[in-house]
Structures are given as structure tokens and as C-alpha cells.
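Page header: ASSEMBLY MODEL / two components / 693 residues total.
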Amino acid sequence: MKPTVGIPRALLYYEFFPLWNVFLKSLGVSTCVSPCTNKRILANGLKNSVDEACLPIKLAMGHVIELCGKVDYIFLPRIVSVAPREYICPKFLGFPDMVRNAVPNVPKLIDANIDLYHPRSKAQKNLHEIGKLFCSNPMRINRAHKTACHSLISFKKLLQKNILPEEAMEIMACKESAFKNKHCNYDSNGPTIALIGHSYNIYDQHISMDIIGRLKKLGVNVVTAETLPEETIRQGATILPKKLFWTLGQQSIGSAIHFLSDPAISGIILVSSFGCGPDALTGELIERYIHGTRPIPFLKLTLDEHTGEAGVITRLEAFLDMVYWKAG
Amino acid sequence: MKVTFPHMGYLWISLKAMLEYLGVEVQEPPPTTKKTLILGSKHAPEFACLPLKLNLGNFMEAAEMGADTILMAGGCGPCRFGYYAQVEYAILQDLGYKYQLVVVEPPEKHISEFLARIRYITGGRPWWQVINAIRFGYIKARVVDDLEKMAQWRRPREIIPGSTDQAFSAALQLIIEARHPRDVPKAQSQGTQIMNQVQVDERKPVVKIGIVGEIYTLLEPFTNLDVERHLGRMGAEVNRSICLSEWINDHLFMGLIKGTRSSKEARRAAPPYLNHFVGGHGQESIGSTVLYAKQGFDGVIQLLPFTCMPEIVAQSILPGVSADLDIPVLTLVVDEQSGEAGTITRLEAFIDLLNRKYQQKEVLA
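Prediction written out in full:
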């Protein structure tokens, strides 16, 4: 009987799922992803987290609960750092322990550390730790790691063609045939808006109230940080007086600065979630930088668990009015 | 050059002593008050933690008194404190303040990095003088901590209400006035004498409460609405998990001075509840709670500023620790909206709970 590993559709799922999935599958494990966020998942997450936690953590808690009872393991690596001398966020560091404390009868957690803080640490070694749970042959784990990396690279390539993560995963699952139908989204004649925010906020249709879909329906082209190569983002972030130690914060600031210098971009929307610590500081820096350099329509949206679609729509419309008015 | 720095409890006494010993002109900010908070929270990002807002207020008030250089600590994450200086500076610049910023980043590998940065501020003074100055600051921090511990013991036991605090501020004044390292021992013995004159009832039963949480909130009485004093008056003996001198030894001297309590013990006690550091003092909060429970304390209070990331992790895990080790834990989140009356009510309720537990234990014994 193959063991089943559950992967919550939350946090860094939108960045690394193809890697994790292919890695686990190559080791002969079947994977199970929690369903797209719905009201029940969010409510369960809220019920089992402290009030002060941020929305993404509460949501992730809900996704973990959704998997309970359906799987043998839950894949919840402790993601400390994914780049040298950088961290994700303190809450990511403590998340497996938070889950263990909040969810009774939780299945076995795969909570090996993913820690690339020290320039000499290797992702491969971290993944080996996980692979050993299911396979005793190091050669096979190595091979699994290699195919997983290839899969991640092709995933990133799709994202850079401005395909949404969920769509890109679909494309990768059913290979090229589907790809021909789903061509580039970058073809409307409308203005181009840069949407800046963490992948787990902007790509989760439920909590972002499908902001990308809404904008597209209004005839707007949307670009995100995921459409940029990593070097461009890192280059953008170098204007800071001190290197930022959050990878996701670098992504926000670096992409904001790049988009600001791109004349094709006619507006910037910054999406953050209530209670996000790093965003409180990076958002402030981005806002101050925009005010100081190029006057461009700018909207800051804070997401929380209280759904109020009307408010979001009103603000998006007002923002787009501003964009059209500026364009003349 | 007139150097200023943010307030954090009695840190200013050490810093001022150190800098003035090196001949640097110092303008410490006026004591943190409601005005500081209003100034700071008006201009700081809304969801930034309270310390950032108060720092900003401190700098704005110090500028009014002529300060033109900020001395600030840095960090390498993941806690937001590591990027405070840069954000605060950007805000001050936009507001039109003419400040010079000097950030002292903590040593990553060796204490010499820290010494080199101190030396940079002091403009190439000889090494022995720099080292002496740092020692001077450290000794003062240690003496202040000792006096505070005496006050924490005396407050619940004092016979005349308020006499401990009166004695404490008189003793503190002596330490502040010591101009030279060699004056400190005398000031200390005089201060200790003053503290010993406070009349106490040694046999009075008191509940023992450990305080854990984020360092700024622990050390700065304005931020934590003076919980230590309130608890003392309600008849609770308080033990704070972080003291300034211990923190200096741990983080700036990298544990060079042996024989003092170290945050390492607390971190070691945190697993299996929290198996990894989470920045700030999150892991220490869990570990200290475990240690307090083992030492027979009656309860633990966790203090954190709203949106403090490491402490939210700890807060999520503390209920499990509390249930496992049978120690009541109260979490107090502070922000600019916090009111003293609400806090006092909650402290009173907590102490009532502890007293009842205490009585039950007595009956069972």
C-alpha cells in the first residue's frame, strides 16, 4: 500500500508545489492536495489559530485540518530560508509546532528543515532528509531530486509567460496539448497593472476575491513578480540601504522598483494581508519610494478574513478610473 | 555631534555612561510618554510593532532637544527589529529631520566586529578606553538589574505601600550619577542600603509570577503599562525572564561573562514544544515558561506588542505548555490602544486565579 502524503494548498504551495509533488511521486508516494480555499477551510483555520496570527497562517491551518483523516502524512517542511542570508518569516519557522499544538490527532508531520541560510547549505541535503522517510536508496532520492528540480524550472518558465500558477500546474499535468489552447494572457488592449503581493495571497482566489480574474474581466493586463526573472527582482532590491533579510520582501520591493521603471506599467496594486509583519515595513518602503520617484496610480489593499466583495470592487474601480484618467 | 538613541527601560543609563566616558556628547530622549506614542504612531506604518512607533517618537522628541545623530542597533532577521533603523530613518527624512544615522549591527562571528563598530562611533579612541567604556556601561546595567530584582522581591512584601518604588528611584539616581567605573561600587552599596531600609513583612504569603515575552515590552514600563509594579502591589513577586545585563552578555559579548543566567538555557528548554528558533525571543518565551513551571512558579505572563511575529508563534504554542505543565499563562498584547484600567482588571483576575490554585495546593498538602 502506497503511503499518501497530504500537501496543504497554502503558503509556499504556489511557489514550490511542482518540486515537492514530483519529488514525492518519484519516490513512489501518492500525493493529495487540499481543495481550493472555501468558507469551511477558512473558518476551521480561524477557529484553531490565535487571533493575532496573520491571515495566511490561519488559512494554512485550515488547509492542514482539511487533510486530517485523509492522509498518512502531512507535508509541512519547516521552511526557514530559501536563499543565503535570508529568511521567509518567523511564523513559517514555527508553523509545524503551531500546527502540532493546535490540531489534535494530526497525522504524522513531515517537518524536516528547509534551511539554505548558510551559503554552503544545499537544498539537496534538506530534501534527502525527507526522501529517507520513503526510500532507502540514496541514488533513487538523488534522481527524484533532479527530476523535481527540472519540473520546478519548467514551472517557473510557464509563470514567466504570465500564466497563473494553478493553470501552469494543470498544463504540466496534462503536458503540451493543453498548452496550445491556453495561450498568453497578455493580449488585451487595456492598460497594464502590476500586482504586487505574496503568491499565497494573490493567487488564492477565495481570499484575494479573485482580484486577478476581476481585473482581467475589466480589460486590464495583469503582471506579477512571478513573471520576472529572479535576477531582475534582486537587481531592483539593491536600491535599499541595507539588504533585506526576507526573501518574500525582496520579491515585493524588487518587483515594485522594476515595474516602476517600466513605462508600460500604468498602475501598481500592492496586496498584503492583515497582520503581515514583514509587509508592514516593506509596504511602507515601497509606498515611500513610489511617492519619491514616479507619480503613478497606487492602491494598497489589505486582505482579511472578513469578506466584503463590494468594498474591494469599489476600490478597484476607483483605482482604474485613476489609471484611465492619467492615461488621458 | 549630539548622539541620541531609543529608550528601552533603563538601557539609557548604560549607553549614556558608556558614550560620555568616551567623550561623546549625548542627548537622551525625554522619558517615553503618551506624547511620544502619539508622535510615533502618527507617522509610523500602521501595522508596525509598537517599539518602532515609540523609537520614532523618541527620535522626534530628542531632535527638539538638539540631537543630530542616531545610534541604533541593527540585526539580521527574521524579526523586524533588524530593519527598524532603515525604516525609521526613511520616515524621519521624509518629515524633514536632519539626522545622521549610525547602525550597530550585532556581531555575526566574533566580538571584534562589535568592538570595531563602537570604535567607529567614538572616532578612533584607544582600544583600552573603548573596552573600559563598554565595561562601564555593562557594570551599570548589572547594578541596575540587581536593584530591580531587590525591588521585585520587596514590592509585594512592603509594609508601607509605595516605599519600595520610592527607595528604588533614589537608589537608581545614585547609579546614574556615578561618573567613573570606580564610583560604581560605592553607589551600589549605598543604593543597596537604601533598598534594605524598606520595611517588609517576610512571612507574608506571595504568589510568584514569571514574565516572558518580547524584550522591549518586558523592559520598558511605559509599554507594558507598568505590569511589574501593578503585580507587586497586588501581592505578587515577579521574576522577569530577560534582564538588560544578561541580554548584553548574550548578544553583544556573545556569552563572554560566565556565571550569569543565559538565554541558552531557555532555548534548550523549549523543545519539544518549539523545536526551532523563530527570531526575537519566541523560543525563549516557551523555554522560560517551561523553566518557571519546573521552578514551582505559580503563573506566567507573556507580554508582546501587537503583530510581533516571534511572540505570536510562542503565543500559539503556550496553551499546550500550560496544559502539560499545569501552569496558568496569561497573554497580554499591547498596542497604542492599550489602557491601564483594562490591564489592571485582567491582572487582578489572573492573581485571583493563582491565589485560588495556591490555596487548593495548600489544602491538598
